[in-house]
């Protein structure tokens, strides 16, 4: 009986996690304390004493400045999440500016904790996401200035600047801490490396191909 009860409870816990986004706040705000040493989290960061909270805790400046896209992928993400803006703690939302050089790519990646809605301010972006197994359907769209596209939480996606000019987009994300898993980096630059016979079998290629890929420098544009 006890074991059954535990199993039911475990199942319930799993279900609620599968449905969960960032939890709802239990107070007006909970400005994050800047304590980089802390390894203790209460599903978010510790709150600063509200008595000492000021407008500056809810303020960030500089998103008018383009990110530096001089790198191997030709794009740069400038995030404004709870790390840059402590007032976002517990509020379930964040944003980013993304700059793209001509033919720059924000490479295949996913956000484990957030849906992303993107608006193009300048340029032309070819964007895609892929659904999960078994379909693995690819959805694509070419976006111009003023166009908006949504990338569902957890799905692999990218944006590619197919124009001859710089492009810039802004994104809203449904988590204070969306997280980013860049596919190539996670697969070919895991530390320590994933065994090459594992990757050779997973990708159905020769181990030499895997060795080559693992020897590359995988840019993190975040
Ligand atoms: C942009 O990044 C490149 C490569 O790291 C660097 O050489 C260059 O000075 C940077 N440009 C600016 C304006 O910061």
UniProtKB/TrEMBL annotation:
SUPFAM superfamilies: RmlC-like cupins
Pfam families registered for this protein in UniProt: Cupin_1
Keyword Endoplasmic reticulum included in the entry's annotation: no
Species: Nelumbo nucifera
Protein name, UniProt field: Germin-like protein
InterPro entries named in the record: Cupin_1, Germin, RmlC-like_jellyroll, RmlC_Cupin_sf
GO cellular component assignments: apoplast
Keywords, ordered alphabetically: Apoplast, Disulfide bond, Manganese, Metal-binding, Secreted, Signal
Entry binding sites for Mn(2+): 109, 111, 157
Cysteine disulfide links: 30-47
Family to which this protein belongs: Belongs to the germin family.
Subcellular location(s) per record: Secreted, Extracellular space, Apoplast
Ranges of residues in domain Cupin type-1: 61-211
Primary localization: secreted
Top-rank taxon: Eukaryota
Family matches, as CDD domains: cupin_OxOx (cd02241)
Residues the entry annotates as binding oxalate: 106, 111
Any one Gene Ontology molecular-function term assigned to this protein's record: manganese ion binding
Signal peptide (from-to): 1-20
Coiled coil spans: none
């Amino acid at each position: 009986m006890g074991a059954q009860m535990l199993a039911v409870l475990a199942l319930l816990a799993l279900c609620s996690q599968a449905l969960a986004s960032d939890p709802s706040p239990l107070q007006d705000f909970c400005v994050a304390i800047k304590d980089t040493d802390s390894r203790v989290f209460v599903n978010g960061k510790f709150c600063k004493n509200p008595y000492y909270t000021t407008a500056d805790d809810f303020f960030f400046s500089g998103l008018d400045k383009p990110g530096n896209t001089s790198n191997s992928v030709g794009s740069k993400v400038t995030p404004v999440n709870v790390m840059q803006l402590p007032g976002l703690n517990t509020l379930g939302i964040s944003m980013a500016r993304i700059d793209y050089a001509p033919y720059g790519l924000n490479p295949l990646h996913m956000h484990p904790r957030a849906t992303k809605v993107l608006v193009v301010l300048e340029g032309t972006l070819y964007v895609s996401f892929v659904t999960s197994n078994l379909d693995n359907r690819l959805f694509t769209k070419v976006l111009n200035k003023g166009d908006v596209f949504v990338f569902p939480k957890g799905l692999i996606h990218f944006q590619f600047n197919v124009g001859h000019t710089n492009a810039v987009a802004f994104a809203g994300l449904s988590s204070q801490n969306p997280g980013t898993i860049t596919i190539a980096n996670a697969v070919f630059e895991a530390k320590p490396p994933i065994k090459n016979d594992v990757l050779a079998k997973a990708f159905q290629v020769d181990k030499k191909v895997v060795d080559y890929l693992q020897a590359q420098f995988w840019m993190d544009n975040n």
